[in-house]
Design goal:
The structure holds two protein chains of two kinds.
Chain A lengths: L1 H30 L4 H64 L1 H72 L2 H16 L1
Helix pairs in contact in A: 1-2, 2-3
Chain B lengths: L2 H17 L3 H15 L2 H8 L5 H14 L4 H12 L6 H16 L1 E8 L5 H15 L2 E8 L6 E6 L2 E6 H13 L6
Helix pairs in contact in B: 1-2, 1-6, 2-6, 4-5
The chains are: A mainly alpha, B alpha+beta.
Chain lengths: 191, 182
C-alpha cells in the first residue's frame, strides 16, 4: 500500500515537473534573458530528470500492468487452446461416429432383430405352455369322464349281476347249499 | 319316562321278585302287562286326563287280575297307577328283561335264515355264539326268503350277516368299486 502511494505521488510529480520547468523558463525569459545554448542545456537536464523520474516511478507500474495484461492474454490463449482442442476432439468424435454410423445402424438393426427373435421365442414358448396346459386339462377331463363312465358301467354291471343272481338263487340253491352256507357262517364266527 | 327311571323301577321289581324266587315269572307278567297296555285303546284310557286317577288304577288292576298276575305284580301295578307311570310299563318290562338276562348270564339273539334251520344247525349256531359271548344264548328264529340263503344273527344289536344276499351285495360292491378297466 505504501509503495503504491509513493508511486502515485512520484507519478504526479513527474507529470507536474514539465509545467514547473516551463513556468520557471517563462519567468526567466522575462526577467533574466537566458541564452539559447543554456536554455537547451536546461531543457536537456529537465528532460533527463523527467526521464529518470519516469523510469523510477511509472515504469514499474507500466511493466506490472503489461505483465498482468500479458498473463491475461496468455490465460485467454490457453483457454482458447483448450477449447479448440475440446472442439477438435468433439469434432473428431462426431467425425468418427459419422464414419461408423452405417456400422452402428447395422448393429442396431441386428440387435433389434435379435430382440424380436427373442420376444418371438418367448411368445411361442408361452403359447406352447398354454397349449400344453389346455391339452393336459382336456386329457385329464377326458380321463375323468372315462373313469366316471367306467364306474357307472361297473355299477350297472354289478347291479345287473346282483339282480340276476338274486332271481336265480332260489331255484338253484338246495338244502345242501343252505347247509354249506350255515357251516361257512359258523366257521367264520368261530374264527 | 326316561330309560333310567324305567331301569330304577325294573331294578326294584327285580329285587322283590328275587326275594320271592319269582324272577322269570315276574318277567313274563311284565311282558304280558306291557303287551296289553301297549294296545292303543287301553293306552289311551290309561293316559286320558279326563279319567280320574282312581278309575285308572281300577282299570290297571283289573287288567292285572285278568292276566292272573301274582300279588307282587298287582301291588306294583297299583304303585305305577298312583305315580302315573302306567304308560311306561313297556319300558320297565324291557329293562327288567335286560337286567334279568344280565343277572342270569344270558343274551338274546334273533336268528334269521332263508330257510328254516334244523335243530342241529340251530344248536351249532347257538353253541358258537355261546362260546363267543360266554353267555347262554336265547334265540328267536325268523325265516326270511329274501335273504336267499345263509344266516343272520342279531345278538343284542351286533349283527353277524352270513346271508347269501349280503355276500352277493358285497360281491357287487367289489365289482362296482374295482379299479380295473372293463
Amino acid at each position: 500500500m505504501m509503495i503504491w502511494s509513493r508511486r502515485v505521488a512520484a507519478l504526479g510529480l513527474v507529470l507536474c515537473w514539465p509545467l514547473l520547468a516551463f513556468g520557471a523558463e517563462g519567468h526567466g525569459d522575462e526577467h533574466h534573458g537566458m541564452s539559447t545554448p543554456l536554455k537547451l542545456t536546461v531543457m536537456t537536464i529537465n528532460l533527463g530528470i523527467f526521464m529518470y523520474l519516469l523510469r523510477a516511478t511509472a515504469w514499474p507500474m507500466i511493466r506490472e500492468w503489461v505483465a498482468a495484461r500479458r498473463g491475461l492474454v496468455v490465460e485467454a490463449l490457453e483457454k482458447a487452446a483448450i477449447a479448440t482442442r475440446e472442439a477438435e476432439a468433439l469434432k473428431q468424435q462426431w467425425t468418427d461416429r459419422l464414419a461408423s454410423l452405417d456400422r452402428e445402424i447395422d448393429d442396431m438393426r441386428a440387435q433389434a432383430q435379435k430382440q424380436i427373435e427373442a420376444e418371438r421365442e418367448q411368445i411361442l414358448e408361452a403359447t406352447r405352455k398354454v397349449t400344453e396346459g389346455i391339452q393336459r386339462d382336456a386329457a385329464r377331463a377326458a380321463e375323468q369322464e372315462l373313469r366316471n363312465a367306467q364306474d357307472r358301467l361297473r355299477a350297472e354291471v354289478a347291479e345287473q349281476a346282483y339282480q340276476l343272481a338274486s332271481r336265480a338263487a332260489p331255484s338253484l340253491l338246495g338244502a345242501g347249499e343252505q347247509k354249506r352256507f350255515v357251516d361257512e357262517f359258523i366257521e367264520q364266527v368261530a374264527r | 319316562m326316561s330309560g333310567s327311571v324305567a331301569r330304577r323301577y325294573a331294578k326294584a321289581i327285580l329285587s322283590v321278585a328275587q326275594g320271592e324266587n319269582q324272577l322269570e315269572k315276574a318277567g313274563e307278567e311284565l311282558l304280558a302287562l306291557a303287551a296289553v297296555t301297549a294296545d292303543p285303546v287301553v293306552a289311551a284310557a290309561l293316559a286320558n286326563p279326563l279319567v280320574s286317577e282312581g278309575k285308572r288304577r281300577d282299570l290297571a288292576t283289573a287288567i292285572a287280575r285278568e292276566l292272573a298276575v301274582g300279588p307282587t305284580m298287582l301291588n306294583f301295578v297299583s304303585l305305577l297307577a298312583d305315580r302315573q307311570r302306567l304308560d311306561q310299563v313297556g319300558g320297565i318290562a324291557l329293562q327288567y328283561r335286560r337286567l334279568l338276562d344280565d343277572k342270569l348270564g344270558r343274551v338274546r339273539a334273533v336268528i334269521t335264515s332263508a330257510k328254516p334251520l334244523d335243530a342241529s344247525e340251530l344248536d351249532r349256531i347257538l353253541a358258537v355264539f355261546e362260546q363267543k359271548t360266554g353267555k347262554k344264548v336265547l334265540a328267536e328264529t325268523v325265516v326270511d326268503e329274501s335273504q336267499l340263503g345263509g344266516v343272520i344273527v342279531d345278538i343284542e344289536g351286533k349283527v353277524f350277516d352270513g346271508s347269501l344276499r349280503n355276500q352277493l351285495k358285497t360281491l357287487a360292491a367289489t365289482i362296482a368299486g374295482s379299479q380295473s378297466y372293463i
